[in-house]
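Q: Structure tokens for this one, please.
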Amino acid sequence: MGRSAFDPELRAALAVVGGVFPPTVTPELVPFMRASYASPPREELLAGRRVEVEDIVVSGWGAMLDGSIVRPSSGGAGGGIVLLHSGGMMFGDRFSGADQALRWVEDFDAVLLTVDYRLAPEYPHPVPFEDCYASLEWFASHAPELGVRTDRILIAGASAGGGLAAGVALAARDRGGPRLRGQLLDYPMLDDRGLTASTSAFDGVGVWDRISNETGWRALLGDRVGGPDVDAYAAPARANDLRGLPATFIDVGSAEIFRDEAVDFARRLWEAGVDTELHVWPGAFHACDIFASHTTIARSMIRTRNDWLRRLLAD
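A: Here is the predicted structure, written as tokens:
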């Protein structure tokens, strides 16, 4: 697909983004990405914010995970959000790309849990997923002492975190786990098979192209990628039954590889009777709200997402 696929304002922003997040991520670039996509220093991240952060340790899947609870400084609380960070399953930390999520704490008096789930390829599936599911169970079990209403807990994530969030929501349904108020899936990484037209339409351009996607899925699944032995908790697009899932918000750019799988997942959720809101942003590249939050489309994405959260967390 040609360069004209991108919104002009966002296309200009890509020149800056490429120095931090190259369009094509190969296995050799993972160490670089772990450094470049790390969250900024804590004091810089929290400067001027009306939040309080408590670093904790959470029981993961056979291991202890570093995590953080973020509360509003006002002391008010009600809703709770478990945030799963982005990073292609291979990089990122609990505050990577979390700028907007910190605003949720301020704007909605929400309590946020974010954790450092273990990363592929050192920890392939099911470790990252099970770490995330265990984090949700921990949060729900500690909700009363955190001031969180158990009927106002959401799971949220972007990109790889969106795929993990969708897998956790499926498992919560299947395992009789915490009852979720909603799942917020920003441009989620849902399907290891790479069969859609958009998957191969953005090679070498934008953020997170086909090769990057293959790198991430192979790190997570190894030789099973694309084959018959991949379960829906790893790749939620493979789920046969989407009934009984919580209210869902999905957004995705029209100029990114996850466009078609996100749209198809939303369609299947509607068919399963799940309350689902879908937005496909014209000319938007992957994660433009993280990398180019000043642009017109990114601001619209953020505002629309926040409107959904506000409605879902309201009494």
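A few notes: The mean pLDDT is 95. Residues 3-313 form a domain with the Rossmann fold fold (CATH 3.40.50.1820).
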